[in-house]
Structures are given as structure tokens and as C-alpha cells.
Amino acid sequence: MADDTLKDRDHKKLGRELDLFTFSDSVGKGLPLFTEKGAAIRRELERFIVDEEIRRGYSHVKTPDIAKLELYKKSGHYPHFKDSMYAPIVIDDEEYMLRPMTCPHHFELFLAKPHSYRELPMRIAELAQLYRYEQSGELMGLLRVRTFCLADAHIICASEEQAAEEAGAALDLIESVTGVLGLKFGEDYHYRLSLGDRANTEKYYKNDTAWEKGEDLLREHLKSRGSKFEEAKDEAAFYGPKIDIQMKNANGKEDTAFTVQYDFCMPDRFDLTYVAPDGSKKRAFVIHRSSIGAIERIMAFLIEKYAGAFPLWLAPVQAKVLPISEKHLAYANEIFSTLRDAGIRVELDDSNETLGKKIRNGKTEKIPYLLVVGDEEVSAKTAAVESRDKGKVGALLLSDLLVRLQEEIRTRA
Ligand SMILES: [Zn+2]
């Protein structure tokens, strides 16, 4: 891509032009404010991933955005992750933290009652709001923010074999998600096996044997899938190695979009156990994974990937009704109400502009369907449909138009 095209795709620029999100100095750096349009994209992504995960056997839960500092000391996040956390908030003489991670919350939920081996693997998922301190210089539109919503999950497994299987199932989910989002392996994203550093015991939990085993497990798994991947030293989580799905933004900078992590440390720290068939208590294994990543970050990638021309299911405004003149306004309103009642995100351009200008505006806004209404359409109860991607569709009966839009949305075509 030429440099000017890349710049045109910059999600910060498009976010402003398409009125998707903004920042306010009064609210604070790195804290995005989503407009109605930006929030519509978020909602679609969130619904999509929650439904998809529930279909794949995940249990969606909800846990709080803050917890006692003690919890993060117990998990080890506090010493290892301290620099990325906000200062404690004192409540009733106790220190609380805005959470940087979901893991300890999910483990406490798991610990609320005993679990049989029959319940495992238990896939605990949440759309979790997280808070991390990023230095001002590191902040970058929606890619690097100080609060974000992670499609997170912790899969509690009965054995290493089950953990490996679940890591595979998580990669299957990720590949299915990238398919729906139109992201291509090798082109839009690639795999990275992120390894620890045995010598750096300050950054990584000390347990050489477990690191070797975990890294081999993920490496063998990637090989068995036939997936091409690169290896990167010193990029692991403090509790274990991970498979990162890396994506480049319009400025060529690479970020982790999704991740699957093998954890041999937290099960010990939290004493995560299950009751084996012989009645004994056994140590569990944990996979941490994010499927669609942080909603903010995937939005940034998608804005740049589609240059703002979102597929219908994601488009903040899916159709716009354009009456040619005032006398077509009543029928235009009828189309507008019918589509809105059916759950389509639709707008009506009742301005006094010429039709040419209305069409140009609709195209600048990258709206998938423009519905022109004049004398002919009023008498035939149709709309003259123009598709952003396919050009002139022609006159469609309102009922046929509705079916067409609903089908395209349902299949996320
Ligand atoms: Zn986690």
C-alpha cells in the first residue's frame, strides 16, 4: 500500500471523520469516549463473540472491575505487573486496585465451590473492563489505551493433555473469528510463540522444568496444526509461555491482537483443584485466552482493514433513506420506521439538499445501502437501492429489501 493510502486508513483519522470515538482532555488521556456509532460497532462485536463462545461451551460470567490489592499479591500480578497498574484506592482502611487482569477474579469464582473432574474443562469467560497504566508516549488511538474491554477467558483443565486440547480449541475459535472478520492468515495476522527467559526471575515465575514443558507443549501444538509461526524470546506472560496472534496497524507497528497462554503458576498460587474419579484432590491446569482480544484494539484494526467501509452487520448506520423532495418525505418515513422496527440501523436524510448531495454525503459516510425515494417509488411501494459495494441494485419492494438486509446481517456476509 502506498503511504497516502495507509494514512487514509489510520483509525484515529477515520474515527474522527466517521464520528466513531473521541478523546477529551477533561476525561483523561487514553480513555476513549465512544459515540452512538462507535458504540454500535462495539455492541455487534460483543454480541457476536459472546454468542459464539456460548455455542462453544463457554460460561459467560460477570466479576467486578476492582478488587483488594491482596488478591493481586496472591496472583503475583502485583510485583510482576505493578508498573502497569494504577495506585491503590483506599476504602474502609483497605487497599483496592482497578483490575489489570481478569484471571484472579475467575479463579476466586472457581474456588467458590468444589468441582468434579466431570465439570472440566470449565471455560469461564467474560467481557471484562481492564485498567492498565500506559505511558503517555505509548498511547495510540484505540490500539493502546488506559482502559479496555477484553474478551477474556480462563479454562480450568484436569490435565496437561486437556490443556493442550483446549489451547487448540481456542485457536480454532480465533481462526473462526478472524474468518468472520475477514482477516487473513499471513496477510493480516501471524502466529508468534512467545517464550520466557530462564535467567530473568524478576520478570518470570521461577520453575525451569515447567517452562520447558509448557513451551514444548505449545510449540508441538503449533507444529501439529501445520501453522507457520515465529518464536520470540522474552515475550511470555510472567506465569507461562503463550501463542500470540500478531497484527500490524496502518503505521506498520505490530501489536498482539489475540492470545492463548499456558499457565503452570496460578493453579499453585490459587490452589486450584478438582475431585478426581478416585475421590482425591488433583491440581488443575489453566489456559488463559482472549478470542477477539480487546474490543478497542480489534476495532482499530477493523477500521483500518476496511478503511471505514464496514460489512453490513458491523456498519454503524446500515441504510439511509434519501427522499428526493419534501413530498416524498411521508413514504420515506414509512421505510425508515419499518426498517428501524426490524432492528436495522437506519437514518433518514430529510435535509433540503439536492439528491446528488445527499448521495455524496451517504457515500462519504460509507453507508452500505442508500435508499432513494421519488414519485415512482412512492407509487410502486419500492425503494431505489444503491449498494456501496455492488453499485445500483435497482427498485426493491420494501418487504424484499428488508429480507435482503436481514439475511446479509444474519450471515455476517
Ligand atoms: Zn488471565
Q: Which terms would index this structure?
A:
single chain; 413 residues; alpha+beta; five-stranded mixed sheet; binds zinc ion
Description:
It is a single chain. This protein has 413 residues and is α+β, with helices and mostly antiparallel strands. The protein is built from 14 helices and 20 strands. An 8-stranded mixed β-sheet has the order 3-7-8-15-12-11-9-10. The chain has a 5-stranded mixed β-sheet with strand order 17-16-18-19-20, sandwiched between helices. Helix 2 (11-17) crosses helix 10 (295-306). The chain is elongated and about 75 Å long. The relative contact order is 0.12. The model has no long low-confidence stretch (mean pLDDT 94). The chain binds zinc ion (ZN). Residues 101-103, 154, 288 line the site of zinc ion.
Task: Provide a compact summary of the structure.
The protein is of the alpha+beta class and 413 residues long. Helix content is 37%, strand content 26%.
Chain-wise SSE layout:
Blueprint: H1 3-9, H2 11-17, E1 21-22, E2 33-34, H3 36-55, E3 59-60, E4 66-68, H4 69-75, H5 77-81, E5 89-91, E6 94-98, H6 103-111, E7 122-131, E8 147-157, H7 160-181, E9 189-194, H8 208-225, E10 229-232, E11 242-248, E12 254-263, H9 266-269, E13 273-275, E14 281-283, E15 285-294, H10 295-306, E16 319-323, H11 329-341, E17 346-348, H12 355-364, E18 369-373, H13 375-380, E19 382-387, E20 391-397, H14 398-410
Parallel strand pairs: 3-7, 9-10, 16-17, 16-18
Antiparallel strand pairs: 1-2, 4-6, 5-6, 7-8, 8-15, 9-11, 11-12, 12-15, 13-14, 18-19, 19-20
The structure holds zinc ion (ZN).
Zinc ion binds at residues 101-103, 154, 288.
